Amino acid sequence: MDSAASTATAARHDFSSSVLATGAIQAQVGAEVQVGARISGKVERLLANIGDNVIKGQVVAELEKADLEATVAQREAELRLAAAKLAAVENLLPKEIQKAELDMSRWLATRTLCEQEVSRESRLLKSEATSEQSFEQAQERLAVVKAQLASAEKEIREFLRQRHRLRDKPDDFTIQNQATLLATERETAQSMTLLVGSVGGISLVVGGVGILAVMLISVRERTPEIGLRRALGATRGDIRFQFLIESALLAGTGGLVGVFGGVVTALAVSQLGYWEAVISWPAVLAGFGFSVAVGLVFGIYPAIRAAALEPIEALRSE
Fold first, then answer.
1. Range of the domain at 24
2. 135, 136, 139, 141: CA torsion to nearest 10
3. Is 62 helix (H, G, I), strand (E, B) or coil?
4. 78 and 162 belong to one structural domain
5. 111-163 pLDDT, tens per residue?
6. Residue 4 has pLDDT above 70, yes or no
7. According to a count of CB atoms within 10 Å of the terminal CB, is the N or C end of the chain lower?
8. How many helices (H) and strands (E) does the chain have?
C-alpha cells in the first residue's frame, strides 16, 4: 500500500486485517509489516498481486500465526504475573496498615507514660520543695520553743531556789521536761538495740562454733567415705565443695527454723493483744542470708581438712 493508506487493526482471533482505503500494494512476502497499533508479524501469504488496486474491506495478506500466538501468550503471561503481583500487594497492604496502626498505638502509649512520669516527677519536686520549706520552718519553731523552754526552766529554778532558801547550796530538786524524757527514752532504745545486737552476735558465734564442731565430727566419721571418693577420682575441690554445701545447708536449716519460730511467736503475741507485731520481710531475708553466710564461714576449716586427707590413709582408717 502507499503511504497515504491508513493502517488497519487486525482481530486477534483470525490474525487477519483489512485495509481501510484503496492503494497500491508494496509489501513483500517475509517482510516485517505493522498492522494497526496492536499486532505485528511476518507476512505469510499475499492475497493480491503486487501493483493491484484493492478496495475497502478486501483482505490483502495473512500474517504468520505462530509468532502472533507466541506474542499473545507472552503478553498474557505478563498480564497474569502483573495480576499476581497486584494481588500480593493488595494482600500485604492491610497487614502493613495494621502494623503501622499498632506501632502508632504503642508510640502513643509510650508518650502517655512519659507525660505521666514527667507530671509525677514535677509533683514530687514540688512536694520535696514544700517539705524542705516545712522542715526549715519546723526547725525554726523548734529553736524558738527550746529557747522559751530554757527561759521557763531558768525562771522556775530561780523561783524554787528562793522558796527553798538555798542561796549558795546546790539544788535539792529536779526539773524535767518532755525533751529530757524523749532524750532519755531514745538513749534507752539505743542501749536496748545495742544489747539485742550483742546477744545476736554472740548467738551467731556460738552457732558457728556448733556448726564447726558438727562438721569436724562429720569429717572424722566419714574419713573412709572421703578416701573412697578420692580413690574413685574426686578432686580436693570436689571434697571442699561437698562439705561447704553441707555446712551451708545445716546453717540454712537452722535459719529457716529460727525464722518460722520468730514469725509464729510474733503473730501469737499480736493475737493475744499485747501489741501489734509488724514483720519486716527484708529483715527476715537478711537474717536468713546471714545465717547461711555464718555456716559457710565456719565450714571452711572442716572442708579444707577433709580435702587434705590422703586417699590411702583415709581408707586405712576404717
1. 16-63
2. -100
3. strand
4. yes
5. 778 778 877 877 777 777 677 777 788 788 878 877 777 788 788 888 777 88
6. no
7. C
8. 7, 4
